[in-house]
UniProtKB/TrEMBL annotation:
Transmembrane annotation, as ranges: none
Gene (name only): rpsT
GO cellular component terms given for this protein: ribosome
Similarity-based family: Belongs to the bacterial ribosomal protein bS20 family.
Domain of life the protein comes from: Bacteria
NCBIfam families: S20
Keyword RNA-binding among record annotations: yes
Function recorded in the entry: Binds directly to 16S ribosomal RNA.
Source organism (scientific name): Falsiporphyromonas endometrii
Swiss-Prot/TrEMBL keywords: Ribonucleoprotein, Ribosomal protein, RNA-binding, rRNA-binding
Residue ranges of coiled coil: none
Protein's name according to its UniProt entry: Small ribosomal subunit protein bS20
Length: 84
């Protein structure tokens, strides 16, 4: 166990931050999976900006890497382009 008050507090904070980050990362992953299942192009075009914003926010807060966010956004845009 930790010996210093500051390390005890740091452990407590890390736990809270981890839970917070996991919630937002999981929420975004669920949104991406739901987006990938879409078959209607108009609906996909409508949802892409909101999903891109979610990914950008996660990257900005270092919850996911910025390149990962860019890769996901690129793949989603390519998916829309391939839709009939």
């Amino acid at each position: 166990m930790a010996n210093h008050k500051s390390s005890v507090k740091r452990i407590r904070q890390a736990k809270a931050h981890r839970l917070h980050n996991r919630y937002y990362a999981r929420t975004t992953r669920n949104a991406v999976m739901a987006f990938r299942k879409l078959e209607n192009k108009e609906e996909a075009v409508e949802k892409l900006p909101k999903l891109s914003s979610m990914l950008d926010k996660l990257a900005k807060k270092n919850i996911i890497h910025r390149n990962k966010a860019a890769n996901i956004k690129s793949k989603l845009a390519r998916q829309i382009a391939r839709m009939a």
